[in-house]
Amino acid sequence: MTTPPVATTDRLAGKRVVVTGGARGIGGAIATRFAAEGAYVSILDRLVAEGTGLAADIGGTFHEVDLLHPDAIDSAMHAALWDLGGIDVLVNSAGILKFSPLLEITVADWNEMFSINTRAMLTTMQIAARSMIAAGTGGTMINLASMAAKKGGAGEGHYAASKAAVVALTRVAALEWGNHGITANSLCPGYILTEMGAATRTKENIAEWSGYSPLGRLGEAVDVANVALFLASSESAYLTGQALNATGGMVMH
């Protein structure tokens, strides 16, 4: 069963949004949903064809970036802010997922995971915060973590740790930048049916994993995008420093 279509109400009319990892998957769904709600969206991703195609579809812009390299992030972020004339909402959706038993995780594995999943967020957040503070109008930051940040999982040691770090980093941002009118929240998806992992996903996997949710299904990217929309809208103005679950009840804390 898929989620039903949703009506749009211009809840983000005029908002200037940067979405990392916005070429496809959850990031793509967020970029699409936000644009439908009236936002101006700039996508940052390493997937050029998909990113430029989606940006054209939603009337946004695209900038190629390799999140392993801070200088590349700096350049892409400033190009996006130039396109938009500033920034109101930052969505850090980009990330990688790789599995390895704890005894087999190498230093290179660990560094790659943290560089992309956590350190890159720090860089984008710093750039966005400086712009928001200089503008004096506040802003919103939404960082994609994972239910792995709260419960872990066998073979996910470096992934779960990187996502737990995202939750902690987001809470510190909420504490340090709240007096500038900036809210910062993390969003923790569960099993979401996206391109990530699709190559090895089986019908048996889907049936098994669906059983972990009281709702009896796995999530669609739009399920996460809808929660992100709430966090980006004025309706969440008094919500900051939180780690919201979008797990279909697989995690309830």
Structural class based on helices, strands and sheet pairing = alpha/beta
CATH-level-2 architecture: 3-Layer(aba) Sandwich
Q: Roughly how much helix do the residues carry, as a percent range? A: 40-55%
Give the termini separation.
25 Å
Number of structural units classed as domains? 1
Are there runs of 5+ residues with pLDDT below 50, and where?
Answer: none
Characterization of the model:
This protein has helices at 25-36, 48-58, 70-84, 107-135, 148-151, 157-177, 203-210, 221-232, and strands at residues 16-20, 40-45, 61-64, 89-92, 139-144, 182-189, 192-193, 219-220, 243-246. It is globular. The protein has a single domain (16-246), classed as Rossmann fold (3-Layer(aba) Sandwich), CATH 3.40.50. The chain has 253 residues and is α/β, with parallel strands linked by helices. The model has no long low-confidence stretch (mean pLDDT 94). The chain contains eight helices and nine strands. The strands form two sheets. The protein has a seven-stranded parallel beta sheet with strand order 3-2-1-4-5-6-9, with helices on both faces. The protein has a two-stranded parallel sheet with strand order 7-8. β4, α4 (107-135) and β5 form a beta-alpha-beta unit. α4 packs parallel to α6. 44% of the residues lie in helices and 16% in strands.
